[in-house]
Amino acid sequence: MNKKKIKLYTNFQADYIYGGGAIVRKLLPIFQSGIQTNWTYFKRAHEDKQQRLQQNNVKYTPTELWSYKKGIRRFQKEYEAITFFCTAFCQAIKNRIFGYTHVWIVLDPGIIDFAYWLLRFSKSETVIHISVHDDCRIDYPSEKPTNLTRIGRILTRAKSIDVIGENLQQEYLKEFKVESFVFRRGVLTPPPYNTKTNSTKLHLIFVGSSHSDECWNILLKHLSTYNIEFHIKVFGASNFQKRLNEVPTNVSFMFMGNQPENEILSKHNEFDAAIFFWDFFSENRIKYSVSTKLTTYLQMGLPIIGLIHPDNESHQIFNYGAGIDITDPKCNITNYLNNTNISENINRYVSSKFNENVMLKNFVDNCILFR
């Protein structure tokens, strides 16, 4: 019997440590041996060469797109449109030639035009699945609105759609009249949390990119009110520190650069809490997404310190007692971290919102790629 062939398209490199790369790599092992996947990702000229990745039944194919050269910057929009049109046409022809009957697209603002033309050129019987990790209705951080008509046509062409959060699911049903199911990277059993008592130093971790300088300034102002030291280790390619108002004398940063997630997870005992922000976004569109760094923190068994937009479902973590909101007038970080129920609260939150077995089953049961 011939293997089912799936063509996967993403706008991020296959080895990207955080975000969509981590989500997709979590899913690939559940594809059975009878499924062959070709992961084609778009690589810009300035991005690093990918690490060697090996997974059974998965082939990785980088496809380089435009380079932002000064000579074409004036015509950048037209150049991008032509590039996506031509790339989509070529990919559709290749899919027909090599027998890829199933197409899986992780849709984001950067490849809306490509996805639109790819599906226009594809056979009508091609089976389409769409994943949405970040709300595609606005291009963050440029704050430019995207083509809602094309997004709607892409989504209505799909046989199944997964979105990263319940709020985003409701938004897309309202905006595009499409049904979807929720999938995000889950957690099995977080390690136990070691309650801190009478500590004069607290070690905090921040992972990934920083979406809001304003959030950092609010946090640092709050930390300055304590008579203890805060040592913050930042993992990822963040440069937000150059734009901060002022760093209090009791706060220090150490920038660790990019590191594989398994190495970061192994350091969970080094930290007392994790820093997490999800607020102050352009047009409040991205507020409906769920950050993958939250999964990383929960895998480490760490409570979060930060602020989250009230409309984002991640804000519920405060209701579970698995984190503390620094905008709450009653916020006291040291008292909170002395709470002996933190591990129990984190486990309850994980069980309710981030259960890995539930999430994987949801994907298998609802994704057209498995039928």
Strand order of the largest sheet: 3-2-1-4-5-8-9
Class derived from helix and strand content? alpha/beta
Q: From the alpha-carbon coordinates, what is the Rg to the nearest angstrom? A: 22 Å
Count of helical stretches:
13
Distance between the termini: 15 Å
Categorize the overall geometry.
elongated
- Helix-residue proportion: 25-40%
* SSE run: EHEEHHEHEEEHEHEEHEEHEHEHEHHH
Largest sheet: 7 strands, parallel
The average pLDDT is 85
Task: Give me the count of strands.
Answer: 15
> Unreliable runs, pLDDT <50, ≥5 residues?
45-51, 66-72
Strand content: 15-25%
What distinguishing features does this structure have?
single chain, 371 residues, alpha/beta, 13 helices, 15 strands, 22% strand, elongated
